[in-house]
């Protein structure tokens, strides 16, 4: 049997301009993916011991090592949005993995389809939606995903995973827990044709709209309000805003086991004079604010760590400038993680993926802890 040859690859390709943070070195090889067939063809030509490629959309959730990535990067370039079926007010929409999330939100708002309006301004491609269980302002992908069509790198076969099989958690999924196992080829979303958005579930968004939590307003109003909030925080990618050169929120909001919450709250009240925010109940845990903990640990907006810094708009984003090194992003993240743990007793976890070798960088504090 003749093994199918893989598509042509570019070599020694800079990854810095392919990410929103704009740091890091080159990829050994780059595959430009314009359709699901490109990935399937590549898988068919892979050697038995060859690791799967790193999938890259808009590069909005990765920190690339200064040494680059010693392997193949598959850049998701293609896209497409197709409404498939209608049942009552529910519309099933199939979206290719390489499609821009910005275009998906705009399509849904224009068509009067509720379910993704709170994701306005989130950078990236649709293939990342089920991987990260992407969410914002009370909406997340687990609420609307019907299934994802995937490629299993182990077998080279295509398959379909239901929302249950994706095993979603807070900014988490089976895809994230099994890195390198699957490539998302497309997603099918269940949106609702209402004209009005879903009930607003996030207090900050409700305040921006001048409504109560649980109320509904027109989709376009929700989209505009979300974009306004995100721009104030430097969370909309904009060349004119230096604070938007980031991966967005760098740390996940931590959860505290419910039996430990009262003692945790009292300890921080005694140390800081303030109780930690109670953002949400999550099963038998309470979610609190990573940004608040970072501030209580003594970090400030605009604070520098070598060539990297904290955003001047809020403390949850780490920002790169021209010439910033990935090693300084690593230094900043590690310093924040260690001090928050020492002062607040909570270990923060970075949201972006660190790509390429980072083990050559010194660990802040020299005690074996890192971001």
From TrEMBL:
Q: Which cofactor does it need?
A: FAD
Q: In which pathway does it act?
A: Cell wall biogenesis; peptidoglycan biosynthesis
The keyword Cell wall biogenesis/degradation is annotated on this UniProt entry: yes
Per its UniProt record, what InterPro entries does this chain match?
FAD-bd_PCMH, FAD-bd_PCMH-like_sf, FAD-bd_PCMH_sub1, FAD-bd_PCMH_sub2, MurB, MurB_C, MurB_C_sf, Oxid_FAD_bind_N
Q: Which reaction does it catalyse?
A: UDP-N-acetyl-alpha-D-muramate + NADP(+) = UDP-N-acetyl-3-O-(1-carboxyvinyl)-alpha-D-glucosamine + NADPH + H(+)
List, for all copies, the residue spans of the domain called FAD-binding PCMH-type: 23-194
> What is the stated purpose of this protein?
Cell wall formation.
What family does the Swiss-Prot or TrEMBL record give for this protein?
Belongs to the MurB family.
Q: What is this protein called in UniProt?
A: UDP-N-acetylenolpyruvoylglucosamine reductase
Gene (name only) = murB
